[in-house]
Amino acid sequence: MLNRFADVTRGGQLESCHAGALVIATAAGDILGVAGANGKEVFPRSSLKLIQALPLIETGAADRYTMGDAELALVCASHVGSPRHIAIVSQLLERAGLAAGKLACGPQFPLDIDDQRALLKSGLQATALHNNCSGKHAAMLLTARHLGEPIEHYELAQHPVQERIRQTIEEVVGARLDDAIPGIDGCSVPTWRLPLDRLAIAFARLLCGEGLADPRLRAVDRLLSACWAQPELMAGRGRFDTEILTRFPQDVFIKAGAEGVYCGAIRSRRIGFAVKIADGAKRAAEAVVGAILAHFLPEADDLGQPVILHNAAGIAVGDVRPGRAVQTVLDGITL
C-alpha cells in the first residue's frame, strides 16, 4: 500500500495501516512536501479554533471581559471537561451576564475518564459546559454580547458571529467561502472544506507573522502566548496537544481536529503542516505529527519513535508508527 501514513503492528507484524494526506509548506508559501493529494479539501474541524478566536480579540470583546491567558487558551481549546475547564467557562459567561443554557454546543460527558467517573458518582448530569468546545462557544457568545448582536442562534451560518468568523478564515487561509456550503461541526457551528496546502501555509504564517498586519498580528501573538502559557487548558492531562505545547513553548503550535485532522507549525523552521487521516484515526494523526516534529527538531527525536500499545493486562502487544509515505516525504526535505 503506497499511501501508508501510519502502521499498527502486533507481534512485530503489520496488523493495520492508515492512509491519509499531508502537506508541509513554508511561511513564504512554498510547498516543501506532499503525500496524498496537495489540493485535497478537508473539513478542518477544531484545528481552526485559533483562527475562530481572532474576532474575540479584534472586536475588543476579550478586553471588555478582562480575559487573561487562561480564558484565551480555553477559547482555543478542545478540552476534556475537567472541573477547572468548566469553572473558567462558567466565569466567562457570568462576566457577560449569560447563562450556561445559552451554549449551543450540546451536553457531553467529560473526555477524561476520572472526571467522567466523578460526575457519574455525584449524580449530576453532563451539560454543555462539559462539551470540549464550550470555551469556543463562550467566546462567540461574548463577542455577540459585546457588539450588541442577538444571542439566540449565534451558531447558525447566517448569524453575524459566524459571518465574521467565515470572513476571518477567508483572510487567514486565503480561500473564498462566500458561495461555499458549510457542513455542521460536532458542536453545531459551521465548518467549511479547505485545501490542505492553504491550511499548511496559513499556520506557518500565523506563527511567523508573515503577511499579518496590526492589529491581527498582535491578536495572533496574544492567543499563541496564552496557549503556550496554559497548555493543559488547551486539551487536558496526558493529551498529545498538551504535551507538545508544554515541551516547545514559543516554537511549536499544533491543534487537533476531529476525524484525523491536525494543523500546526514550527516557528524556528518557518514551516507549517496540515494532516488528514482518511479513516479519521487520531492515533495515526498523532504518529504523523510526531514524525514531522522529530524530523525538524533534534530535541523531538523521541516523538518519531513507535508508540507502544498495551492490552488490558498491561502487556506490550504492538505499536503505532509513522508509515512509509510520511517518511518518504520527510526524507526529501532539508532545511
Can you put this structure into words, describing what you see?
This protein has a single domain (21-276), classed as Beta-lactamase, CATH 3.40.710. The chain has helices at 49-52, 54-58, 61-64, 69-75, 83-95, 113-122, 134-147, 160-173, 196-208, 216-229, 231-234, 240-247, 282-296, 324-331; strands at residues 6-10, 13-18, 20-26, 31-35, 41-42, 183-184, 190-191, 194-195, 252-257, 261-266, 271-277, 307-310, 316-322. Strand 9 and strand 10 form a beta hairpin. The chain contains 14 helices and 13 strands.
Q: How many domains is the backbone divided into?
A: 1
Q: What low-confidence regions span 5 or more consecutive residues with pLDDT below 50? A: none
Alpha-carbon distance between the termini? 29 Å
Helix content: 25-40%
What is the CATH first-level class name? Answer: Alpha Beta
Portion in beta strands: 15-25%
Average pLDDT figure: 96
User: Count of DSSP helices?
Assistant: 14
Order of helices and strands: EEEEEHHHHHHHHEEEHHHHEEEHEEH
- The CATH topology annotation reads as Beta-lactamase
Q: Record the strand order, biggest sheet.
A: 4-3-11-10-9
Give the CA-based shape.
Answer: globular
CATH architecture: 3-Layer(aba) Sandwich
